């Protein structure tokens, strides 16, 4: 007797999760060590550019940590209260981390503006160069290293540190904005960018005896787990069980949906003019 496919899937997921956890733990430790090192180096050298790059690296550390957290939360079984499980915890954590990183970046930009106005900050170029040289092996933008050399040989040009801070702050905002955008789309239960509902409708309409496909709802439980609910109207003499099986296979194998809900109903003429059954217009 064959074992349950769900059971086999769970075993495979556990094996892949263990490998992913090990890699993420190593990445987290390395990122955290470097973030702390950059903040310390930036503090003692009085370089806001290095501290801003540390904030950039902090976003990578946060993403690793959120991935670890999501893997752990995904192991928690669904409950009557949390019927889909705890997948959205990953999204909530991502939003929180983005706002924390933006606050840190905003504070560093504020300090950079103050330095440009008062022009009274002395930067230790030697510590800045040492930190930047070590950082090049990790994630530091080569611009910090160049800025360090300029400040060392031309001390009056220490404003370059503030300029680098502005540049890195923009990079931090850009790199984290996509995370926030994807998280908001998940929380608003929007259709993922890689899903074409028109193609799904056509694939289901191509099934034998399917007269109408309507009320297609696609949303994400989390970034990589997508759900769908759809109504399929068929002829009165159709084999509904066969259509249900074929439709489920298409949605699972071709589109990778992790949660599928299909309502099969008999086609009625008034469905052609029913507003609820019509295709949802594109958002412009």
TrEMBL record:
SUPFAM superfamilies: Cation efflux protein cytoplasmic domain-like, Cation efflux protein transmembrane domain-like
Bilayer topology term: Multi-pass membrane protein
The UniProt record lists the keyword Signal: no
Subcellular localization(s) per the UniProt record: Membrane
GO cellular component: plasma membrane
Chain ranges of the Cation efflux protein cytoplasmic domain: 193-266
Gene Ontology biological process terms in this record: response to zinc ion
GO molecular function terms listed in the Swiss-Prot or TrEMBL record: zinc ion transmembrane transporter activity
Record-annotated Cation efflux protein transmembrane domain positions: 24-142
Family membership: Belongs to the cation diffusion facilitator (CDF) transporter (TC 2.A.4) family. SLC30A subfamily.
Protein's UniProt name: Cation efflux protein cytoplasmic domain-containing protein
């Amino acid at each position: 007797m064959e074992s349950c496919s769900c059971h086999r899937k769970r075993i495979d997921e556990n094996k892949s999760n263990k490998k992913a956890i090990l890699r993420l733990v190593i990445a987290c430790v390395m990122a955290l060590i470097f973030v702390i090192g950059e903040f310390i180096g930036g503090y003692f050298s009085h370089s806001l550019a290095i501290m801003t790059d540390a904030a950039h690296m902090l976003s990578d550390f946060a993403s690793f940590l959120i991935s670890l957290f999501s893997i752990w939360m995904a192991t928690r079984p669904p409950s009557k209260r949390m019927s889909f499980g705890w997948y959205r915890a990953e999204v909530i954590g991502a939003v929180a981390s983005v706002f924390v990183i933006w606050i840190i970046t905003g504070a560093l930009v504020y300090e950079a503006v103050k330095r440009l106005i008062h022009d009274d900050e002395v930067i230790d170029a030697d510590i800045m160069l040492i930190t930047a040289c070590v950082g090049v092996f990790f994630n530091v933008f080569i611009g910090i290293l160049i800025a360090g050399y300029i400040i060392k040989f031309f001390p009056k040009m220490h404003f370059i540190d503030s300029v680098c801070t502005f540049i890195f702050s923009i990079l931090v905002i850009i790199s984290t904005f996509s995370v926030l955008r994807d998280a908001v789309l998940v929380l608003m239960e929007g259709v993922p960018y890689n899903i074409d509902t028109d193609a799904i409708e056509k694939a289901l309409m191509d099934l034998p005896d399917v007269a109408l496909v309507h009320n297609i709802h696609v949303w994400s439980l989390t970034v990589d787990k997508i759900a769908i609910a759809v109504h399929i109207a068929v002829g009165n003499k159709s084999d509904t069980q066969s259509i249900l099986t074929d439709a489920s296979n298409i949605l699972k194998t071709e589109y990778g949906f992790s949660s599928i809900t299909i309502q099969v109903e008999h086609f009625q003429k008034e469905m052609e003019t029913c507003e609820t059954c019509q295709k949802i217009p594109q958002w412009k």
